[in-house]
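User: I've been trying to design a sequence by hand for this structure and keep getting stuck. Would you show me what you'd pick, starting by listing the structure so we're on the same page?

Assistant: Good idea, let's start from the same input. This is the structure you sent:
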């Protein structure tokens, strides 16, 4: 199921697997994109449901994920499946490269792979001491250490406030600037030790996770990439095509909700002269959360929210 033959693999447990792939309303001959390959669970399920004439493109900027998928394909050739090692913000460019003019469905699981958290040397988690890295694409230049040691107090405050939604943003930023004036911060352990006393004891781990989340989002330019991908997906979907997104924090979910409700990232509702909302997307059903059974099996899914939208018929204006 996850590139490990017939045995379970802990590289990444796909969240909301069945409802998300169901949400694509797959046509066996359709063309689909999984913009977040990760451990491959969602892609494998999509591939299982498409027919010989169907196509699946799977994106991931992480070389480990692509290498694992390539290894699987070497043993299980599938002419319908194309792997793309790239940030999903370049979705439109790659579809043009492959000669794809429209899509029947796009799926995005915006969560960080369990693999990234569990491999200590990637620096995503405060639970193990590791270099301050946090790069999804290990070929990228900027690391979390670069952000922590070079951003001004104002810039760090903005990162923690915007991407971590932390009330203590300015205190955290000031503490970092003061500490690095003595010695650069280079490890997750050093950063966690510095920030922990500044956080409320009752929310210590949650707020520390938010601080690390904020740095990860900044390092990988995640919100800009998400904006670009969502707009490209909307443009590429043919009428009746589905956009399926699993988001894990309010910033992502708000952007997705706005797009599906109003047709734009800002959430500005535009109406025609008859009072009808002008949008290229129509929300399908209500947001879906993990079941109690999935939460018990995979606690990391607890904040996941699945939203589904369908491309509306285009009209001549």
């Amino acid at each position: 199921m996850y590139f490990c033959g017939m045995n379970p693999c802990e590289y990444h447990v796909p969240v909301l697997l069945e409802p998300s792939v169901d949400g694509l309303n797959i046509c066996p001959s359709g063309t689909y994109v999984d913009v977040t390959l990760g451990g491959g669970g969602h892609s494998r399920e999509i591939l299982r449901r498409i027919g010989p004439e169907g196509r699946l493109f799977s994106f991931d900027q992480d070389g480990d994920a692509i290498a694992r998928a390539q290894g699987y394909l070497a043993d299980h050739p599938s002419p319908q499946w194309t792997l793309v090692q790239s940030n999903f913000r370049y979705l439109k460019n790659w579809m043009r490269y492959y000669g794809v003019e429209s899509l029947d469905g796009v799926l995005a699981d915006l969560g960080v792979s369990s693999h990234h958290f569990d491999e200590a040397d990637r620096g995503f988690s405060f639970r193990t001491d590791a270099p301050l890295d946090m790069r999804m694409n290990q070929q990228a230049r900027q690391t979390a250490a670069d952000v922590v040691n070079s951003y001004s107090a104002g810039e760090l405050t903005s990162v923690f406030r915007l991407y971590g939604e932390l009330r203590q943003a300015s205190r955290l930023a000031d503490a970092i600037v003061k500490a690095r004036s003595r010695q650069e911060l280079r490890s997750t352990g050093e950063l966690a030790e510095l920030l922990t006393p500044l956080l409320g004891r009752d929310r210590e781990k949650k707020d520390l996770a938010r601080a690390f989340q904020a740095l990860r989002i900044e390092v990988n330019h995640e919100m800009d990439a998400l904006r670009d991908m969502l707009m490209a997906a909307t443009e590429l979907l043919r009428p009746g095509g589905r956009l399926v997104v699993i988001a894990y924090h309010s910033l992502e979910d708000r952007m997705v909700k706005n797009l599906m409700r109003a047709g734009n990232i800002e959430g500005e509702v535009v109406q025609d002269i008859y009072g009808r909302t002008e949008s290229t997307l129509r929300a399908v059903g209500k947001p879906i959360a993990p079941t109690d059974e999935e939460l018990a099996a995979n606690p990391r899914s607890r904040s996941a929210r699945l939203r589904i939208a369908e491309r509306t018929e285009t009209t001549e204006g």
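That's my pick for every position. To get oriented when you compare it with your attempt: The longest helix spans residues 204-220. The beta strands are 31-34, 55-59, 81-84, 103-109, 237-247, 281-283, 305-311.
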